[in-house]
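sorry for the late reply, my laptop died twice this morning and i had to redo everyting from scratch. anyway the thing you sent over, i finally got around to it. pasting the sequence first so we're on the same page, its 165 residues, then the predicted structure underneath. double check i copied it right bc i was rushing
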Amino acid sequence: MEEKVQRSNAGKGIGIAGFVISIVALIIFWFPILGIVLGVLALVFSIIGISAANKHNRPKGFPVAGMIISIISIIIAVLWITVIASMMGFIQEFSDDKLDAEMEMYFSKEFEDALDEIDTDELEKQLEELGDEIDEATDEMEEAIKESEEEMEEAIEEYEEEQEE
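ok and here's the structure:
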């Protein structure tokens, strides 16, 4: 008689889950907090998968790959947080009051000079012409809507007459 040896799938499911979650964490490291959370979750699942596979002498490929990828994703997410924080410090350096005052003075003078060159009468005339064109277009649209409504009513009446016959 042959004895059937039943092989356990211990650790396989959770190891694959750790692997998949670690890949997702690696892909979304651009959102560092979410990347770290998923990376830690994947790391936990992978470690549990390795432990279960060791107890039942099963292959550990997916859990080990998940553990490695999750560690890499956590490191990348932490580095990304560091880059973002340093960029924020860099930006803050250039937003001091002196620089803001100089920029405001330069742009306000430029703006005033540009305003002096603009012919306001011409702008008012163009604005009035644009308003007239808008009024004309609105009237044309209203007429077209009325015509469409009339045509629809006629079509409905014709259809109803055909249905009565």
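The CA atoms of residues 15 and 63 lie 4 Å apart.
thats about all i looked at so far, will dig more tmrw
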